[in-house]
User: Fold this.
Amino acid sequence: MDGAAGGRANLGFNADQCDESMPAFGHVNFHDKSVGVKANGTVLDAGFCSPDEFVENNGLIEICSFCFDGEYEVFFNYNSTNPAVPGGGTGLVCLRDDGEGGGNTLDNAFVYLYDGVYAGYFNGDTGWAGNIQGHDCG
Assistant:
């Protein structure tokens, strides 16, 4: 994805939460080279956003607090891996993948670090070249 101030940013994640009675688990890795934001995180909550609450073929469906219908929403705690900016905080990723291959202009990825050492950091990219693999719960 594009960096917040030009250049490139890398986002990697693995998030799982099929049973709301159990904690979510997974990992988030983010590095925006254009502004020195570099962090690893642990997933706190994850789901696929819908205006309704029910289980469908994409796994757990939930009403989301920040992301839009048709997007995955992942909350996480993070720790900075940039030695010049020690500390941690909490963040959110919203993701949409409308299919394989290029030209999917509805694909998007948004990263918001809303507290901690990178508080206020926001980066969004539409038309990104990501690939999200959703799996059925079961």
Observations:
- The two ends are 32 Å apart (CA to CA).
- The chain has no helices and eight strands.
- The beta strands are 9-16, 25-32, 37-49, 61-62, 72-80, 88-96, 108-113, 121-126.
- Residues 54-61 have pLDDT under 50 and may be disordered.
